[in-house]
Amino acid sequence: MNNIPQRDVIQSYTWFDSVLTLKGVGESISEKLAKLDIVTLGDVLLHFPYRYQDRTRLVPIRDTLLENEALIQGSIISYQEVTNKRKQLIVTLEDGSGIIRLVFFHYYANMLKSFKLGALLRCFGEVKLFQKGKTMVHPEYQLVTEDSLVDSHLCPVYASVSGISQNWWRKIIRSLLAYRGDLFAQDPVWEKIIDERFGIDFLAALEKIHLPSPDCDKLLLLERKDNAYQRLIFEELLAHRTSLARVREINHQHCATPLLIEKEKIDALKAQLPFTLTAGQAQAFAEIQSDLAKDKPMLRLLQGDVGSGKTVIALLSASIAIENNKQVAIMAPTEVLAGQLFQQFQHYFVASEVKVVLLVGSLKEKQKKQICDEIKEHHAHIIVGTHALFQDRIHFADLGLVVIDEQHRFGVHQRLSLNQKGGQETAMTVPHQLIMTATPIPRTLCMSYYTHLDTSQILTLPQGRKSIQTVAVSNQKRDEIIARIERHCEQNEQVYWVCALVDESEHLEAQAANDTYLALKQRLPNLSIGLVHGKLKANEKEAIMNAFYAGEIHLLVATTVIEVGVNVPNATLMVIENAERFGLSQLHQLRGRVGRGAQQSYCVLLYQTPLSHFAKERLMTMRSTTDGFEIAEKDLQLRGPGEVLGTRQSGLQQLKVAHFARDFAQIPKVNQFLSEHPLGIASQQLLMERWFKRKTEYAKV
Ligand code: ADP
Ligand code: MG
């Protein structure tokens, strides 16, 4: 596949090795995997199937069910090339119980050659009704020979990206599971207890999930209720809990420079703002101010919905550090957000001597070097950049405060502990840390889980905001919605149309968005319509977003890529297609893209019937409130049985198998486990490494 020398499967692998160590994996595949957030072998093994196919038994053609996949086998009783509109090859199979038609639109000459009358063919595919007969379109097929076996396990189907086939996943994962060796380092202490508790060990759990036996309960697995999943969920929550506790512990061992400010100064700063702080902002800022004055590093989480005014709090906090001659680092999750923050900070400090710089990956090497020098020489005072950029080569002259803007991704901070090797840390002077998140974390969860952080919440938005009007509309009334879009755009306001598949590949998602885009274009010829999805290159995406921002595009069809960091105040209508498939937090975050200007905004949740009980509840919640905390709380309650929502929902989770909302009930059990079995440093280390190892990249602030 490529010429990069690689290790053979026989050689030693560890959980943290890069996927590049696998035979046949070079830069191109590893880049594709990175899109799925897969970098190490451990990541590969923790990439779980979202469904299974049953190829373990042959189904008589008569017994196959329409719209279901089946493995069938029969002899060819006819085959012919037909040209209706498109050339196609039609093959008829017969197995004694019935006949089925196979249709191929793409086929090769040698395929024709191998299809002899009477030859035995085995096929896997979905059975459809076509011209009154059972049909499989483009089934996977093979000519049956004496040694054709059926699968001994259910066949996993993985979320993937284009260029990486299902067979690739199956092969790699199977060989890694068979490899064992150092891959699965076991802990002598906690691991045994957990093995016993769940009746399955780590490796067996992975095997069961990737290669379930034909008689296992598929549904239980897919719902992650099976003991294999339960074990992994428990373990991951344990790892997470442990890493949080370490953050606090380490923080307590360090000192910080107290950042003090006179009351008059701070009053003057507040007075310069074009508005007065809301009660929530004032309270949060008072808490931060009191933390900063201590000689222990602040570790505070500031929560507040989008638009609640967190940035102002960051600005005021930064001012205090600047008054104390300290530098401030501001970390954002994406370049776009870093750019926005940079502008806000620059604007705020424009009349002062304070130098604000932006450090992002797209800068030229020369510029980066210059900025790094300025940081080292203390010529730059406030440094805004992406999380990733803070990892390498930056040396601060005197860093006093780190502000981490996590937007919707909550979780970076927990990894700050991982660069600290167990037991070796000595008291150091470290900067104060303020973590900001727009993910409303339900109070119940906050209290039982985020105990390692001090938290401040801004519960109410500044006055005068119009709340977004939300309706839920059945897809049958799609035409009315399309007509509404036209009227809306006639008033010079703009519209988002969000479409998404959940748990499918990026490729399919892009395709779905593209189909909708084409259909809308046909229906709305007078509008300028744009399309963005995850398969576009960064600069293409940016060009379209800029055109939308500039008002050149009226209607933007998008996948959930628009979730983070888009601010177009003139966009006042959002249509979310298949809204029933989204989790509440994600709906809330998507909806937050409108309602950013002075005009009234609207959100239409377009749903497909029939609705499950939980889906109905979710849509009703969205209609009745725009309060992120209320929605988050409801989200916790609504994770009923049978709800397998997309793995890509954002919100609380940054976890691999566990989902805070879904697995909420496990948290007290995890806490209890830890109090009964306190983990030693080595155990903690192994646990955290197994689950979070490579995430250390954020650690060196
Ligand atoms: P967040 O970062 O929490 O999403 P921002 O800090 O960006 O929110 O604030 C959103 C908008 O509200 C900004 O335009 C900001 O100037 C404005 N704003 C912030 N605080 C107040 C306030 N107390 N009164 C009025 N407007 C405010
Ligand atoms: Mg913000």
UniProtKB/TrEMBL annotation:
Top-level EC class as recorded in UniProt: isomerase
The organism's place on the tree of life at top rank: Bacteria
Sequence ranges assigned to domain Helicase ATP-binding in this UniProt record: 291-458
Keywords carried by this UniProt record: ATP-binding, DNA damage, DNA recombination, DNA repair, DNA-binding, Helicase, Hydrolase, Isomerase, Nucleotide-binding
Keyword Cytoplasm: no
Catalytic activity: Couples ATP hydrolysis with the unwinding of duplex DNA by translocating in the 3'-5' direction; ATP + H2O = ADP + phosphate + H(+)
Entry annotated with the keyword tRNA processing: no
MF (Gene Ontology): 3'-5' DNA helicase activity; ATP binding; DNA binding; hydrolase activity
Biological process terms in GO annotation: DNA recombination; DNA repair
Enzyme Commission identifier(s): 5.6.2.4
CDD domains hit by this protein: DEXHc_RecG, RecG_wedge_OBF
Any one Pfam family match given in the protein's UniProt record, by short name: RecG_dom3_C
Ranges of residues in domain Helicase C-terminal: 480-637
Matching NCBIfam families: PRK10917.1-1 (NF008163), PRK10917.1-3 (NF008165), PRK10917.2-2 (NF008168), recG (TIGR00643)
Function: Plays a critical role in recombination and DNA repair. Helps process Holliday junction intermediates to mature products by catalyzing branch migration. Has replication fork regression activity, unwinds stalled or blocked replication forks to make a HJ that can be resolved. Has a DNA unwinding activity characteristic of a DNA helicase with 3'-5' polarity.
Family assignment from sequence similarity: Belongs to the helicase family. RecG subfamily.
PANTHER family: ATP-DEPENDENT DNA HELICASE HOMOLOG RECG, CHLOROPLASTIC
Protein name in UniProt: ATP-dependent DNA helicase RecG
Organism encoding this protein: Candidatus Berkiella cookevillensis
Gene: recG
